[in-house]
Amino acid sequence: MQIHADLTRRASVDSNALEWVPSPMAGVERRMLERDGAEVARATSLVRYAPGSAFSAHTHDLGEEFLVLDGVFSDETGDFAKGMYVRNPPGSSHVPSSAPGATILVKLRQMAPDDTTFVRIDTHDETAWQTGRTGERRLPLFSNAHEEVAMLDWEKGTAFETVSLPGGAEYFVLSGSFTDENGTYPEGSWLRLPAGSTQTIASPTGARVYRKTGHLA
């Protein structure tokens, strides 16, 4: 299966317009944003767990990264409430489940083979946020030679200068909306810009976004 699989092309998806597609496990559904492969695939998806549902034990050969959007997502390492950012590096394994139900943004098979870092960050911890550009707060989530991941808050009316993205960029809009020269991206939007892109962002409404850069070089 291939969905927005060409990483050299811009891709934009309003996830709210997608149907929930059943996974092989009962009670677990997906909205597929990008995918290259069958059930084992390089993928970015929204995954929804019904209350009491679980997925079978599995290993992430090239890692897993997720952000809890709603509910509580659990595995044998802990319970991750809304706002938790988690990275499980290549070779890690777990048995995911959700007692009350959960929705997560998850990226699979997109880490460097030498990445060995486990990450657990509560994005609701206000003490971890930093001042960024004018009109911006940022929460660093992860950084290495291959990529940088952060959560960004943009004030209402914020506008930034044009930036170059030599390693590309990827966004998921958690709240509010933003614009660039190619469109408007409301809550629930996923956007991927290929390596070598430029972008001019403004946010008339204010926004909170997940952003990854550098990983598409």
CATH architecture of the largest domain: Sandwich
Specify the number of helices: 0
Structural class: mainly beta
Distance between the termini: 23 Å
Instruction: From the 3D structure, determine the CATH topology of the largest domain.
Output: Jelly Rolls
Give the strand tally. 25
Low-confidence stretches: none
Q: Superfamily at the CATH H level of the largest domain? A: Jelly Rolls
Mean pLDDT: 95
Provide the gyration radius in Å.
17 Å
Shape: globular
Topology as H/E string? EEEEEEEEEEEEEEEEEEEEEEEEE
Q: Report the β-strand fraction as a percent range.
A: over 45%
Per CATH, the class of the largest domain reads Mainly Beta
Q: Sheet with the most strands?
A: 9 strands, antiparallel
Helix content: under 10%
The count of domains is 2
